[in-house]
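Hi everyone,

Forwarding the result from last night's run.
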Amino acid sequence: MTHPATRAARRAAARKHPQRRQRTTHSAFSTKDWKLLILRRNKLKRARQLGRLWPHPGRQLELILTETDPLHVLFICSRNQWRSPTAEAIYRKAPGLAVRSAGTARAARRQVKLTDIRWADLILVMEDKHASRLRAEFRQDLRHKALHVLDIPDDYGFMDPELVDLLGSVVDPLIDAAQRR
């Protein structure tokens, strides 16, 4: 049997043999379904950043996705040597949090990058100068991010008990407020 030459003939042949047209899927979700889930999750994150309600409360799928997403917190100081690594060490194992630390100086152990800014849901800087440096370098990407200045001077060493107490008293309310959103 030869291949039908016209489109109408091919359609007629396909109607006669419906088993040829069936596609088999190997998983419960196709790639299109996964893409839609990721897009919905991104829309929900963006709506939270803007302080809007999305999705409609009756939708359960988005609520399930948000419960599994940790809050991404980025701690920033100058050289990423004492203050921000201390904050990262304190909150690293906290449930519902994913934590990173970085520095604004060129000589920082880990310098803040655009990927860090995009990753973070909540950005906590130690001093005003860190916030102004971030705004100067990442203005567009900080537009819808929560950025808070902790006002913690560079007077402490790594895991200094006073620094740990100060971080706990300043950071805990900010994280609680961000998680309630």
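The two ends are 65 Å apart (CA to CA).

Cheers,
N.
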